[in-house]
Amino acid sequence: MKTTGYAAHSADAPLSPYTFERRELRHNDIAMEVLYCGICHTDLHMARNDWGATRYPFVPGHEFVGRVIAVGSDVSRHKMGDAVAVGCMLDSCQRCDQCRKGEEQLCREGHTHTYNGMDRVTGDPTYGGYSKFMVVREEFALRMPAALALSKAAPLLCAGITTYSPLRTWGVGPGSRVGVIGLGGLGHMAVKFAVAMGAEVTVLSRSAAKEADALALGADRLLVSTDAKAMAKAGSSLDLIIDTVPTKHELLPYLPLLDIDGTLVIVGQVGPLAETSSVPLLFGRRRIAGSPIGGLAETQEMLDFCSRKQVLPDCELIRIDQVNEAYERLGQADVRYRFVIDMASLPQP
Fold first, then answer.
1. Position 12 confidence tier, pLDDT thresholds 50, 70, 90
2. Which domains does the chain have, with CATH numbers?
């Protein structure tokens, strides 16, 4: 299947139009027309080869929604015209203990990434959702609830599930006290989810500049992390902290905010962290943990939760030819809070 898309051809080249072939449908595949695709900070890192693992040409995009245009012979979950959503995975072994219990993101053999991965059958490179058409195994295309606006829903498939999953894993609900470090694409979703789950929510920021935004999103307060007196006063006031900062940073200032048995969960930074101390961990039985995306069942649960509660990201809709400008702005944190590409602006192949 021929498709058009936008690709990076080297670490220092802007994204540009690219025509390539999608694989023919296998018996358990669906083909979809991509309608909207979110821009994730990971897209920017990978396009620029910040982690040293990018294979070019590179087509980003691992949070997108669209409609089914073809189905394989054995497909039973979807039919032509269905609205579907795809996130960071296209496949997994489906046999290991993690896959069998619905944790495909933790597949023992490694799940197949939506972009910069390798097809489990052919070994061909996978290309992401900055493209007109996509082919995906039917289980990995999730059902879009009718009540969710397609133009805003795409970031739920990455930013959404990345923050929803740890909130569910650590049992957040009414009475929970949740802190969120950072108020960007991930952070604003963590706030919205925690509020919708009934938690008391504190946003942690280096200045008070985002206080109005935090309160508008439903947070109860903003705590300025550079204010030593305010931080000391807030000691042992949180049960869970979701750390969404995408760059190397210190954890030590935040750990005393956790109550006994509290957990700080890293969902933003991929790579080194600043040196910390075991003192607040030992003397408060506190924990530092990490969390990736969720499995397929949990991601569908999240979409249904968002439909019931009308939780959606705050998005800025752009054309595909504005993607390089969006990358520049993303690098400067100049977006509230997620770019979404209207793929109608991409010509047919």
1. very high
2. 2-157+314-345 (3.90.180.10), 160-290 (3.40.50.720)
For residues 48-63, b (16+ Cβ closer than 10 Å) or e, as one string? bbeeeebeebbbbbbb
Tokens linked to 46: 């990978």
Dist CA 286 CA 263 (whole Å): 6
pTM for the full predicted model: 0.95
User: Which residue, 295, 247, 320, 252, is CA-closest to 60?
Assistant: 320
**Mean pLDDT score, 31-41:** 97
Asked whether the predicted pLDDT for residue 348 surpasses 90, the reply is no
- 259, two tokens: 């109550």
Q: Which residues 6+ apart lie within 8 Å of 279 measured at CB? A: none
**Helices (H) then strands (E): counts for the chain:** 10, 17
Q: Closest Cα to residue 91, out of 137, 134, 128, 125?
A: 137
Mean pLDDT of the chain: 96
Q: What is the dihedral of CA 315, 319, 320, 322, to 10 degrees?
A: -90
With b meaning 16 or more CB within 10 Å and e meaning fewer, what string describes 248-278? ebebebbbbbbeeebbbbbbbbeeeeeeeee
pLDDT score of 303 more than 90? yes
Report strand pairing: 177-181 vs 89-91. Answer: unpaired
pLDDT at 271: 87
**Distance separating alpha carbons of residues 197 and 288, to the nearest angstrom:** 22
Q: What is the pLDDT of residues 75-133, one digit of tens each?
A: 999 999 999 999 999 999 999 999 999 999 999 999 999 999 999 999 999 999 999 99
Residue 155: its H or E element: none
Quick check: helix, strand or coil at residue 163?
helix
Q: At what angle do helices 159-169 and 185-196 cross, to 10 degrees?
A: 40
Provide the percentage of residues in the chain whose pLDDT is more than 70.
100
